[in-house]
Design brief:
- This protein has about 160 residues and is mainly α.
- The chain folds into two domains: about 70 residues; about 70 residues.
- The chain contains five helices and two strands; from the N terminus they run H-H-H-E-H-H-E.
- It has a two-stranded antiparallel sheet with strand order 1-2.
- The radius of gyration is 18 Å and the shape is globular.
Length: about 160
C-alpha cells in the first residue's frame, strides 16, 4: 500500500459494501418474487428455494432487507456528509446510481403506504408506482453492471 493512500478511500471494500451487495441481491430476488415467476418457471423447485414461490415469505424478506438497505443508505449518506464530504466527491456514475436509489426509496415507501389497510390509491397511481419501482430497479441493475464493467466508482478523491 502506498504511504499516501487513504485507508477509507473510494475503492476500499468495507462491511457496508458487502451488506449493500447482499441487500441488493436479495431485494432484487424477492422483488421479482412478488410476481409469480419463480413457481411458473420452476425456480422454486430448485432445492432450498421452495420459499421463493410463497408471496408472503418473499414479501416479508423484501421488507426485512429494505429496512437493512435503508439503514445502510442512512449510514452512508451521513458518513459522507459529516466526515468525507471534504475529501470525496460523487462521480457522475455515483450521482446517477444515487438518484436511482432515491427514486427506489421514494416509490418503495409509497408502495408500503399503499399496502396499509384502509389506504386507497387510485388504480392508475398504484399501477404507476409499481411500474416505476420495477423500472428503477432494472435501471439500478443496469447502472450497477455498467459501473462494474467500466470500473466507475461511486466517489473520487478531491485533491
Amino acid at each position: 500500500m502506498k504511504a499516501n493512500e487513504d485507508q477509507s478511500g473510494p475503492n476500499r471494500k468495507t462491511l457496508m459494501w458487502y451488506l449493500y451487495l447482499i441487500s441488493m441481491v436479495l431485494l432484487a430476488f424477492t422483488g421479482f418474487g412478488q410476481m409469480p415467476i419463480y413457481k411458473r418457471y420452476y425456480i422454486s423447485d430448485i432445492p432450498g428455494l421452495a420459499w421463493s414461490a410463497d408471496f408472503y415469505t418473499t414479501h416479508l424478506i423484501h421488507y426485512i432487507f429494505s429496512a437493512l438497505f435503508l439503514g445502510i443508505a442512512a449510514y452512508v449518506v451521513f458518513d459522507h456528509l459529516l466526515l468525507k464530504k471534504k475529501r470525496f466527491a460523487l462521480t457522475l456514475s455515483g450521482f446517477i446510481r444515487s438518484a436511482i436509489i432515491a427514486g427506489l426509496v421514494a416509490t418503495g415507501l409509497l408502495l408500503v403506504i399503499y399496502n396499509f389497510s384502509g389506504v386507497a390509491f387510485p388504480m392508475w397511481a398504484a399501477a404507476t408506482l409499481l411500474v416505476a419501482h420495477m423500472t428503477l430497479a432494472m435501471a439500478l441493475i443496469a447502472a450497477g453492471f455498467i459501473a462494474l464493467i467500466g470500473r466507475k466508482p461511486w466517489v473520487r478523491a478531491i485533491n
